[in-house]
Design goal:
single chain, 189 residues, mainly alpha, 9 helices, 0% strand
Length: 189
């Protein structure tokens, strides 16, 4: 086995997803994931702290959301800043090439309580990242928290729709549609 091979992290993620689908999350070991990726157990742990983290991408998504909010036009409302961030996520992370992977990942998470719990914790972290980014823009509390919570809901709805088999909607478009629906629902209350 070579000491260094390119794209180790990506290969570990793909190997893990394949094995989780084949054997189930509980019956898959870190060693099996590393071997499937053509890497060692120590390489796995250089990239991920544990088996469940392999499907969650560290802080990448939080960084994309915070950066997108920060890059929104100065005159943007809090929800417009969140929408700008979701457009960024669509361009950078939830691309057409990753749709199939996203659908497979979502299916594996749905069948595993430990991964569903981790997904929920990840969602809380993303909401916190959006809240902090909005506060840095000068959005006061509770408006920053409300916009971030609505943004998290919109992101979840858009991700579900984007992952649908046979879908061809871009994530940004799905997020904008979900945002319109959330705004309409809150206006009707």
């Amino acid at each position: 086995m070579a000491r260094w091979q390119p794209h180790a992290s990506e290969r570990l993620v793909v190997a893990a997803l394949d094995l989780f689908e084949e054997k189930g999350y509980e019956d898959t070991t870190v060693i099996e994931i590393a071997e499937r990726a053509g890497l060692t157990k120590s390489t796995f742990f250089r990239h991920f702290p544990d088996k469940r983290e392999v499907l969650f991408g560290g802080d990448t998504m939080a960084g994309l959301l915070a950066g997108g909010i920060g890059d929104a036009p100065a005159a943007a409302t809090p929800l417009e800043a969140v929408a700008h961030a979701l457009d960024t996520v669509g361009r950078e992370a939830f691309t057409a090439e990753r749709r199939e992977f996203g659908a497979r990942r979502r299916a594996v998470i749905a069948t595993t309580p430990e991964l569903r719990e981790r997904e929920a914790l990840k969602g809380l972290g993303l909401t916190a990242a959006m809240t902090e980014a909005l506060e840095r823009r000068g959005v006061p509390d509770p408006a920053s928290r409300v916009a971030a919570q609505l943004g998290a809901l919109v992101m979840a709805l858009a991700y579900e729709r984007w992952c649908e088999p046979g879908g061809d909607t871009e994530f940004g478009a799905a997020a904008r549609q979900a945002l319109r629906e959330v705004q309409a629902a809150t206006a009707a209350s």
